[in-house]
Design brief:
Layout (H helix, E strand, L loop, with lengths): L5 H17 L5 H11 L5 H4 L2 H4 L13 H17 L5 H12 L2 H22 L5 H12 L2
């Protein structure tokens, strides 16, 4: 199982952004990342300055959103949707997409459920509960 360090994950996004500017070829995963980055222009200035932001601490108690974590969560959801894992996530996404009318808003709703699912798993010292994850998605699309 691949488990990149915080710096490795950040370098991945910096490299994707640099490759875009340099018009270098991208892997399929990098294409997904670039599409996600393109929908988050608020992070472009961060990605333009790797020396400044590679080691930057983002503390929730300071009200800061970690752009790298946010982009990584989008990438995780994109991969989950591509393989329908957990089974049924695509259907949940389609319901959220109909509800919100915007792919990013639908993904943000999924990200909320994903972060809750991961938090619960970490707290319980157990693997993530896919059924509960999908239940969260159903609850969000019922609103």
């Amino acid at each position: 199982m691949f488990s990149p360090s915080r710096e490795d994950a950040r370098r991945f996004f910096f490299d994707v952004w640099r490759k875009r500017h340099d018009q270098q070829p991208l892997t399929p995963l990098e294409h997904w990342a670039l599409e996600i980055i393109a929908t988050h222009p608020e992070y472009h200035a961060v990605l333009d300055r790797p020396a400044r932001f590679l080691a930057r601490e983002y503390r929730p108690e300071d009200g800061e959103i970690n752009p790298f974590l946010h982009l990584s969560l989008h990438l995780a959801v994109t991969e989950q949707l591509s393989i329908d894992q957990p089974p049924g996530i695509r259907d949940g996404y389609q319901r959220l997409l109909k509800q919100h009318g915007d792919p990013m808003a639908a993904q943000h709703a999924i990200i909320d459920c994903l972060t809750e699912t991961v938090w619960r798993a970490q707290r319980a010292g157990a693997p993530p509960d896919g059924a509960r994850y999908l239940e969260c998605l159903r609850g969000r699309s019922a609103r």
